[in-house]
Amino acid sequence: MRLGTLVPLTEDNAGSSNGSVSSVPIFQGSNGVGRDHLVVVDKRISRKHLSLHTSIDGSIEVVVV
Question: Cα dist. 50→24, 28, 34, 61 in Å?
Fold first, then answer.
């Protein structure tokens, strides 16, 4: 079940429209966010840089790996 979407922010905290990072859908359970979600490959970010675990009640656990 899809619970939301991660949207990249600009410096003024508005949604990004420059296309360098795409929106990432977040589903219930475990989600990995990393290099595969970038339009431009950046070797400083691992293939699974963030680990998100979401619950249907809206809680989320975020781990940077």
Answer: 12, 15, 6, 10
